[in-house]
């Protein structure tokens, strides 16, 4: 997030405002510097013996400076992303930070990140001063050489006016050369922002939303059968596999629980189902159709999901439940009743037109999760995914969520990524993942009877922690 914020704020500002002016100034002062040196060469051509080596030395110094300055600017951009990301996270979690009294720790951490960001900028400034000092020294040498050549010329070679003009241009040469090189260096530093933006311009796009000649039937998926065939996932071409050849089949109407330790690949498997990340190998087939061959809109619009972090949008209750306006108010009220939200919405003066602020902060966490359940109920998808949907809600809301899913999605395929082990105890089958590999896939009661079962270990650990917390 910080990398995106840094690019769309600082880098865009530099490209839109600073870069054009820097380009104009660099062209202007460079032309002025070369004009001054040309006038000196016309008046006293002997100055070329000094000017040419000096100009060559200036370019060498500039090249030497660029090698350091560009890397410092890249470091500055990278560390600025950390500051922006930390600020965004701190603002989003300000209530939690205050509740736990951790303001001083977060403030100290922010100062550390700001210092880390200021360090490359300070060194870049120091490198700039290093360059300017040497430029001024060389320019003074050229001026002194010009004056010496004029003094050594025979009397009457040039009129006093020409000599005065040469000395005048020589005096201004110092400033013009320094400004020329300095603006060129500033321009080169600003080009780093173009480079950073260019990196995001060439990110591969997702697959097309719709592939006309490969559109699935209107009633797809009809059964909700999911076949995962030797699925391999990696997030970058040169990174290790996150999922390593997962193969299993979810029959239509099955209630599947996915368990595993943190980082085992549970959420990655769900992401592959929605094609948030494309497989490096293998495939996923839903009701006989390879999901990798159809458009993303046709895929994602046919599945329902209740995420771990519920997302609400700035607008009305009606808009958040039915953003596309495909359902009537009667259907929406029926869904609100099933989600135990009807009373809460009726208490609002505007009912379905009641306002929902961004991220739904004027509703409780449990109510936001129930809103996501309401969306899934309106969609009536044959495949429903719960990505640790009960991880951040209270037990009462968890009970409502589970009861509604059992009754309203009884004939649908429900895939649950479990955070609380009791959530998956009534599932048809449990899929256990460890280090990206499928290690168990069977009924929960059978897995618990197996002494060496990973699922059995997770159940024991959960109840052990639960009893410790109760005591």
Automatic annotation (TrEMBL):
Domain ABC transporter: 226-460
Superkingdom of origin: Eukaryota
Main location group: membrane
Cited Gene3D superfamilies: ABC transporter type 1, transmembrane domain, P-loop containing nucleotide triphosphate hydrolases
Keywords, comma-separated and alphabetical: ATP-binding, Membrane, Nucleotide-binding, Transmembrane, Transmembrane helix, Transport
Ranges that cross the membrane: 12-31, 37-59, 138-156
Catalytic activity reported: ATP + H2O + xenobioticSide 1 = ADP + phosphate + xenobioticSide 2
Gene Ontology cellular component terms for the protein in this record: membrane
Domain ABC transmembrane type-1: start-end pairs: 1-189
GO MF term list: ABC-type xenobiotic transporter activity; ATP binding; ATP hydrolysis activity
Enzyme class: translocase
Membrane topology: Multi-pass membrane protein
Enzyme Commission code: 7.6.2.2
Pfam families referenced in this protein's UniProt entry, alphabetically: ABC_membrane, ABC_tran
Location in or out of the cell: Membrane
Family per similarity comment: Belongs to the ABC transporter superfamily. ABCC family. Conjugate transporter (TC 3.A.1.208) subfamily.
Protein name: ABC-type xenobiotic transporter
Species annotation: Silene latifolia (White campion)
């Amino acid at each position: 997030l910080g990398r995106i914020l840094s690019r769309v704020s600082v880098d865009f500002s530099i490209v839109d405002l600073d870069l054009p002016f820097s380009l104009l100034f660099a062209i202007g002062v460079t032309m002025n510097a070369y004009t001054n040196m040309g006038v000196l060469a016309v008046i006293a051509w002997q100055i070329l013996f000094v000017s040419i080596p000096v100009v060559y030395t200036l370019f060498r110094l500039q090249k030497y400076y660029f090698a350091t300055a560009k890397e410092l600017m890249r470091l500055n951009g990278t560390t600025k992303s950390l500051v922006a990301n930390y600020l965004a996270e701190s603002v989003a979690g300000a209530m939690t930070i205050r509740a736990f009294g951790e303001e001083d720790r977060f403030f100290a951490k922010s100062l550390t990140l700001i210092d880390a960001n200021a360090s490359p900028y300070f060194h870049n400034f120091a490198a700039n001063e290093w360059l300017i000092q040497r430029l001024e020294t060389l320019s003074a040498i050229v001026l002194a050489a010009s004056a010496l050549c004029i003094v050594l010329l025979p009397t009457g070679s040039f009129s006093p006016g020409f000599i005065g003009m040469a000395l005048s241009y020589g005096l201004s040469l110092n400033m013009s050369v320094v400004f020329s090189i300095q603006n060129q260096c500033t321009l080169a530093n600003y080009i780093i922002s173009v480079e950073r933006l260019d990196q995001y311009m060439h990110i591969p796009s997702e697959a097309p939303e719709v592939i006309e000649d490969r559109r699935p039937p209107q009633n797809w998926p009809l059964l909700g059968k999911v076949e995962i065939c030797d699925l391999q996932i990696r997030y970058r071409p040169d990174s290790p596999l996150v999922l390593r050849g997962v193969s299993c089949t979810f029959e239509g109407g099955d209630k599947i629980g996915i368990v595993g330790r943190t980082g085992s690949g549970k959420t990655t498997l769900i992401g592959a189902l929605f094609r948030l990340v494309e497989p490096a190998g293998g495939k996923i087939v839903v009701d006989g159709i390879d999901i990798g061959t159809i458009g993303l809109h046709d895929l994602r619009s046919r599945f329902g999901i209740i995420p771990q972090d519920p997302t609400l949008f700035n607008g009305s209750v009606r808009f958040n439940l039915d953003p596309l306006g495909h359902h009537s108010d009667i259907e929406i009220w029926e869904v609100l009743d099933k989600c135990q939200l009807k009373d809460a919405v009726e208490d609002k003066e505007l009912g379905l037109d009641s306002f929902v602020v961004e991220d739904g902060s004027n509703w409780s966490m449990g109510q936001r999760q129930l809103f996501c359940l309401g969306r899934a109920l309106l969609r009536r998808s044959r495949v429903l995914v719960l990505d640790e949907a009960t991880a951040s809600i209270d037990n009462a809301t968890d009970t409502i969520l589970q009861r509604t899913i059992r009754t309203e999605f009884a004939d649908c395929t429900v895939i649950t990524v479990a955070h609380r082990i009791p959530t998956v105890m009534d599932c048809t089958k449990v899929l256990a993942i460890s280090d990206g590999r499928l290690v168990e896939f069977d009924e929960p009661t059978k897995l618990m009877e197996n002494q060496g079962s990973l699922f059995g270990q997770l159940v024991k650990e959960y109840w052990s922690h639960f009893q410790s917390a109760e005591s």
